[in-house]
Amino acid sequence: MEHWEYLKPDGLRFVWDDTLFRPGTDSFLLSSLPKLSAGLRVCDLGCGTGLLGLLLLQRQSELTVTGIDIQPAAVALAERAAAENRLTDRLTFQSIDLRQVRQHFSTGSFDLVVCNPPYYPPASGKVSGDSARRTARSETEASLADICAAASYLLRWGGKFCLVHKPERLTDTACALREAGMEPKRLRFVQNRPDTAPSLFLIEGCRGGKPGVDIQPPLLLQTDTGAPTGELNVIYFR
Fold first, then answer.
1. To 5 degrees, how large is the angle CA 74–CA 103–CA 76?
2. For 73-102, what is the mean pLDDT?
3. How far apart are CA 50 and CA 207, in angstroms?
4. What SS3 state is found at 62?
5. What's the pLDDT at 132?
6. What are the DSSP calls for 148-205, one per residue?
7. For residue 48, how many other CB atoms are within 10 A of its CB?
8. Is the entire prediction scored with pTM above 0.85?
9. Which of 73, 173, 195, 196 gets the highest tally of CB atoms within 10 A of its CB?
10. 165-198: pLDDT as tens digits
């Protein structure tokens, strides 16, 4: 079953389907990390039904976003969302394997690459029997190293790669970025409250960047009373 929702009142609409991986908070949080400016060329690796691209365009309308996903059903919905929002000139999609980006794009085609990747290595934890959810959750189709290699190829020199991941994969992520020629430059942990352990982290790598990472204050989701923080409300356009 399809579900259509607004990012904010009178804002852009996104779509998701029960048969595909349901969009989560992590995409909203990731959309707050990139430093956006008019004219940026953006690529969303593993775009699903296009939520992250729509979030970025809701924050900065003068972007051009290309989404890539291996699942044709997800891309078909993403294309419908682009048409529904009258963004087909700024938001386009291709159903391709990100490990084959060299066959479809020239190196340095983008200023910014974003990715909400699968969080778990193959055969790690409970593996979904549904192929769409398995692809979105586990690195069965593309590893973290594959994702970083694709991002590095697609980025211009000095371009940025932003992604979200689980804290236990921080070392893997930093090593994969550096191995692909991207230096971690900004790191921000996501916590429910100041006294809780991080549940996610947001990281930005720079293609050809010099060593040195800015560890930013944590992104807190709740106040002491359990209410959403002001920053989270801004991220959700509330």
1. 15
2. 97
3. 24
4. coil
5. 47
6. HHHHHHHEEEEEEEEEEE-GGGHHHHHHHHHHTTEEEEEEEEEESSTTS--SEEEEEE
7. 28
8. yes
9. 173
10. 999 999 999 999 999 999 999 999 999 999 999 9
